[in-house]
Amino acid sequence: GRASIFISDIFVRPDIDSDRIEVWVEVTNTTAEKKEISFLFDVYPRNFLGNPLTNLKIQGNPAGPGKNVYRFWIKMKNYRLWEPKSPYLYTLRCTLKAKDRVVDVMDKTFGMRKFHMNEKGESKGAFYLNNKRIFLRGANEMGHLQQCVMRGDYEQLIEDILIMKLANMNFLRITQRPVQQEIYEHLDALGIMNQTDFPLFGKLRRNLFEEALRQVGEMEKLVRNHPSTIMVSLINEPLGDREIYKQKLEHRHLLNDELEEFFRAACSIIRFYNPDRVIKLVEGTHCGYIQERYVPWGVPDFHCYVCWYGPDVWGSIDELHHGYIYSVKPGWMTTCGEYGTEGLDSWETMKKYYPKEWIPENPDEEWSPKKIPRSQTWKHHHSWFDTKTTLAEWVRESQAYQAWATRIMTDAFRRRADVISGFAVHLLIDAWPAGWLKTLVGVDRRPKPAYYEFADALTPLAVNIRTDRTRYFEGEKLNMEFWIFNDEPEAPGNLEIAWYVLRDGRVLFASKCPARIKPSGSEFQGYFRWRTPKVKARTKFEVYLALQDPEGKVLHDHSQTLEVFPRPNLSELSNVKA
User: In this model, does residue 371 exceed pLDDT 50?
Assistant: First the structure.
């Protein structure tokens, strides 16, 4: 049992601009009488040593029957900010007294942080953490964290979040559902920002309009105290009127105008419970409809699988690689909430977890990925790599392609930091064996090669080589672009870029120049137009680009392998008869 009057909820709303917190205390009075109450507040550092604020006494108005919400401001002094690199947390302890007798006590963890999105002027859709520009770099999650909590395996939960941190991630899209409190608590403590999706996919049933709004409010109350939860979204990949009419579902599901009314009502409910919440209306508008129609306000988002399903409404991989970002919403930046390709699990993972009917006795036997139910590799590999024979060959080639595709798309997104404010690869860690082979890490936490490419591509301060060609004839000039990516709001000075060409371990060319680094953005450094030398046969060259400090210490590097061919004798070819 508990007292007849008790604390039913607490929301701690940080305000770093005014160095204070607003505390919302919900008190439930189960009697029919008004109760005289008072509060005692204490604020303690939770994961670091510091000075607490204690014994803050506040008299409350009498609590009537049912729920009562009290709001108080508490001044914070010399506090530490919550951010991914240093996720400092506090505990607020609220003691409820009735007639000077303690009747209930509740603790609530919070972090001093501010997350907001620019909605006016230039760069609308840009994100800010603690009033500093930030880019969201991360992945989607579809069950592996929930599995950890369901099993009570919190060591694995911690390891999974550290796998994200090791990949230079700062963001996790919790895809298409809210999750258990334990997951948010660990994301708070280890410093991974997250977006929680409302569980709507494609459409909303007419008879569930009011129920959806009720659940929107419950979702916000679930996540609003967690500093790691920086954003929520309302629907994944809406179908739109054309598809709903095509499927003859207009009598069952909301149409565009009605869905917009749901957005308005849902946003009002969310901001009623948390006035500071950043809301993404739509997660993924890759279906070919006008974004302004689906995103009447706020940041747009697209899902991009041009390296897997092939060219779609958003274009092709060659266009993305060239820097084209299709018009998503005039005057706004955008996010890419999903992108990726499949990479088969390793032989070790298959042998340990897969049913015997799916795999041969050894990896060198003839095999096809058609054996794996719902795998897409067989259907889509024809566009990207040659058909293989043995299981070992399939694993090697699919993983190599996944690594290449992950890198080329991630680099392309980072080069367009003027337009893309965040992205999330789909997915990071598998929740089940062969659960969703687009993951970069298997269910046994065995990383695929794409994981390492992704981690390197997310290096906050990095150099990058962009090229359209990797094969040349002797005597041709290279056509390479050198770039620097910087996700930090500060631009370090006195750095330089150095580049050189290797053949068989021997340096053929080297040079360097001062680096031009842009705060919170990408900066083109120039073209590399070195002329390839004469070769007697097909020869490999390596072009290296490095960012280094004045002492020559390399901070980050990137390389590109080239092949140079002897120039053919066209006069000899002209004598060949058909």
Answer: yes
